[in-house]
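From the pipeline queue, job 12 of 40. The input is one protein chain; the requested action is below.

Action: predict structure.
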Amino acid sequence: MMVVVNEKQVEVDEQTTVAALLDSLGFPDRGIAVAVDSTVLPRSHWTTRLSDGARLEVVTAVQGG
């Protein structure tokens, strides 16, 4: 099935969770926020399975001034 991550289409298995997708795409373990279909998803819900057509926005915190 297909999902969209930061405006890029990604093919995933039906059993793929948010956490597994982030790991497979190389996102860091800390310092990121995830929204699925425009709703912020708490880290405690990253075990949620993705659905076909889901749209994810992943934002990485950047330190600096």
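Job complete. The two ends are 40 Å apart (CA to CA).
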